[in-house]
Amino acid sequence: MAMIVHIFLIFVTWLAHPFHVSVCDVEFNDKTKSLEISQRIFLDDLEEALRKKSGWTTLDVVNPSDKKRFDALMKEFVIENLSIEINNKPVKLSYLGHELESDAIWCYLEVTGVNNLTTIGVANSALIDTFPDQVNLIHVKKEGKIRSLKLYRDNTKGSISY
Question: What mean pLDDT comes out for the span 147-160?
Answer without folding.
Answer: 97
